[in-house]
């Protein structure tokens, strides 16, 4: 597939995994990323079920396990700080501690994927696609920098607020399903003195938690508030988002203290709990992957795993279709639709936000584990051996 030039928009989890697999099948890959480098930040994320099989085929499972968050357990408190339960067997973010699933920091996974891709693909940082025109010859892309280039295919892996989706499929409002919650995630000093521990708080209208990270040197704060109506704010204006968070979180648990650290946080991430639902994930030579096409929201617990599985399936089906992108895109959807629907449904289960007892948590983890494993990967020959392609 060399000489099949593919442009991937976004160097997040989906984009980097896609670059890895397309390169391994011999496509000629360019990645454009709006940020100056793959963006760090984020809370603990999970690789579980079928996504672990993908990681196995990438040869990165040992690295994932090395980077695993080293939690001893978790507790849940109410808005006054009264403990509802505590467990040394599971965490609220990662599930059963001695199970096969891997919970790690999002930025560690980004670095790991970047290393797995190596220098074999071209990166265009600090840039973004301004326009895409398609015809029988290809997808003709103009970048915001002013450069213009043609590709056979464009993969939109640019996250929840996908630029490619907006340019090719229409406005975000056509595809978004609001789940009634906003969250902010950021790093703070370990102001609670947590020792490999996470404590979460569930209270009407406000919720979240604090989790120690990096050998207890710091914590990741995770704080959200309910809003039935979608809020109007600038996705690029981080200071305004911090203000929005501070203004909407009341005097609940330790959140007022946690929010004192938000102003200096280097890695603040804020977004609505929303899902993306689309009738089609491709149009012409353009296809969507990960959050761009089927965001499940952090409430699904499966955004990262869906991105990894989606990247494997899309690249594999394109390779199997031998250059027929319409057949490849159709097979990608056929293979992945049911898996995505089941994973997105996890965020909508009524009792997922009512984890008041250890039994509730066990039920939720059992359901998640079953759905996360519900797809069996196909073999897409001929991929190179990871030992030969990884540097
Ligand atoms: C900084 C950050 C922190 C996150 N923290 C959490 C978290 O704590 N918990 C959680 O559950 N999920 C979090 N997520 C979302 C989570 O990473 C995704 O749900 C999941 O991993 C699927 O990944 P994705 O690659 O589809 O999307 P993302 O990980 O969102 O990656 C999208 C990438 O596209 C880039 N991009 C966006 N617009 C453009 C553009 N116009 N041109 C080029 N590139 C563009 C972004 O900079 C980013 O690198 C976070 C995402 C980001 C970017």
UniProtKB/TrEMBL annotation:
Lineage: superkingdom: Bacteria
InterPro entries tied to this protein: FAD-bd, FAD/NAD-bd_sf, FAD_aromatic-hydroxylase
Domain FAD-binding residues, every copy: 4-343
Signal peptide: none
Protein name, UniProt field: FAD-binding protein
């Amino acid at each position: 597939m060399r000489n099949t030039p593919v442009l991937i928009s976004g160097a997040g989890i989906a984009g980097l995994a896609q670059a890895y697999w397309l390169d391994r099948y011999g496509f000629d890959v360019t990645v454009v990323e709006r940020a100056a480098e793959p963006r760090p930040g984020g809370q603990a994320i999970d690789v579980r079920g079928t996504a672990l099989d993908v990681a196995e085929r990438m040869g990165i499972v040992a690295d994932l396990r090395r980077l695993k968050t080293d939690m001893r357990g978790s507790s849940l408190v109410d808005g006054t700080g009264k403990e509802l339960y505590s467990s040394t067997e599971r965490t609220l973010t990662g599930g059963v501690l001695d199970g096969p699933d891997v919970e790690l920091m999002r930025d560690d996974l980004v670095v790991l994927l970047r290393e797995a891709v190596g220098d074999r693909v071209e990166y265009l940082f600090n840039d973004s696609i301004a326009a895409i025109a398609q015809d029988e010859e290809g997808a003709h892309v103009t970048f915001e920098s002013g450069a213009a280039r043609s590709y056979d295919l464009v993969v939109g892996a640019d996250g929840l607020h996908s630029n490619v989706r907006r340019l090719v499929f229409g406005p975000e409002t056509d595809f978004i399903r609001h789940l009634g919650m906003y969250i902010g995630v950021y790093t703070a000093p370990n102001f609670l003195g947590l020792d490999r521990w996470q404590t979460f708080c569930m209270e009407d209208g406000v919720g979240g938690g604090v989790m120690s990270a990096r050998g207890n040197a710091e914590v990741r704060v995770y704080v959200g508030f309910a809003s039935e109506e979608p809020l109007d704010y600038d996705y690029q204006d981080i200071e305004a988002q911090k203000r929005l968070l501070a203004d909407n979180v009341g005097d609940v648990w330790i959140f007022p203290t946690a929010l004192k650290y938000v102003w200096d946080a280097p890695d603040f991430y804020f977004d609505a709990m929303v899902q993306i639902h689309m009738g089609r994930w491709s149009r012409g030579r353009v296809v969507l992957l990960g959050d761009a096409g089927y965001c499940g929201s952090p409430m699904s617990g499966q955004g990262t795993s869906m991105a990894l599985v989606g990247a494997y399936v899309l690249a594999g089906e394109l390779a199997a279709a031998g250059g027929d992108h319409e057949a490849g895109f159709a097979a990608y959807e056929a293979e992945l639709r049911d898996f995505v629907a089941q994973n997105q449904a996890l965020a909508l289960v009524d009792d997922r936000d009512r984890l008041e007892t250890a039994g509730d948590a066990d039920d939720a983890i059992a359901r998640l584990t079953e759905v996360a494993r519900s797809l069996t990967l196909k073999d897409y020959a001929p991929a190179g051996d990871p030992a030969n392609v990884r540097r």
